[in-house]
Amino acid sequence: MHSIRLSAGQAHDLEGPTFTGQLQVELSGGLDFEVDVPHMESKRRGSKVAIRNPRETTEVTVSPGYGHSYFPTGTKLFVTLHVTPEQGEGTRIEFPTFEVGGLRSFPVAVILPTEDQVRLIVAETTSDTTLDEYSAGVRSALRRSIERDSLPEGKRRDVVVIVDVSSSMPLSMDRRTFEAMCTFAAGVLSTNSGDRVLHLATSSAADPLEVLPGPEAVRQLAARDFLFKEVGWSRDLGSLDPEFALVVISDDLPAEVTARGGVVHLLTPRRPAASAGHTSTVFDESLITAVLEQNSMELAVPTRTMFDTLTQGEK
Q1: Burial of 79 (C-beta count, 10 Å sphere; 0-12/13-18/19+)
Q2: Where are the domains of the chain?
Q3: Measuring CA to CA, which of 147, 169, 189, 294 is 20 to 30 A from 39?
Q4: Could you give the C-alpha distances from 33 to 36, 65, 94, 106, in angstroms and in order?
């Protein structure tokens, strides 16, 4: 038996009109689960599900077991498919590790039969990045609100995270608040942007535009030593692609941001003096505590507000 590993969204064709295999499904922490395999013969024993002969397109779905309406925060899903043909060598197919915390269910793959072969299509997830437990808690809260893992390709958006490095910032925002903002932004962006490009900029023209490797790098901004020394904003926001959405971390809504227009969401320690039609998340003590305690109820509305802004209300 030879082995292959598929990535998210990848398809793999299995020769022959018939199909026989065995799914092995596991959740981190030994959590119980349910597996739904419609339109084909199936029989489960423990973590293994024998499947064969799909009659039509089948979506293989994993849901939490008894006692859970959602997968707990941080839950990882591991899936392997052993294909056993009537003749020849079998194949062991490893799926990517799926981060499923906060979801009601997760469709791991689609099995599509045709006249002379069976096509296996792995779930396309843009949220399999590793987050720290607090950012994962924010992501779980958002997932519960929108009841999905990520956005389809056409709805994802490139984002620029802009940190205000004006001299007034240290007077209005302490380190704990800044860390909560970075944690919150990482959790939302892991669902909103997925595999699209994330950039980092500051309000200073002296700092170059930087490409971030992924949403987890937004959380790590909290450990950076930004130099809060400029009197105002010197960066020309007009030079940024107008299609980029902006996530601004500042103690108010800067006039430079208002003048640019476009899609903007502000993370701030106090309610801005004027909104100019843009949305904001105010990090008061109650919201900071919700982030640290992974309080899904308290995080539901603010995460959804930022999500809807960055996706322009996508449903």
Answers
A1: buried
A2: 2-122, 133-311
A3: 147
A4: 10, 4, 19, 11
CA distances from 152 to 41, 66, 270 (A): 30, 30, 33
CA–CA distance, 88 with 313 (Å, rounded to integer):
51
B/e letters for 100-133, b = 16+ CB within 10 Å, e = fewer, are: bbbbebbebbbbbbeeeebebbbbbbbbbbebee
CATH topology assigned to domain 133-311:
Rossmann fold (3.40.50)
Predicted pLDDT of residue 191: 80
Distance CA 51, CA 83 (A): 10
Give domain 2-122's CATH number out of 3.30.420, 2.60.40, 1.10.3470, 2.60.120: 2.60.40
Topology match between the domains 2-122 and 133-311 = no
Q: For the CA atoms of the chain, what is the radius of gyration?
A: 23
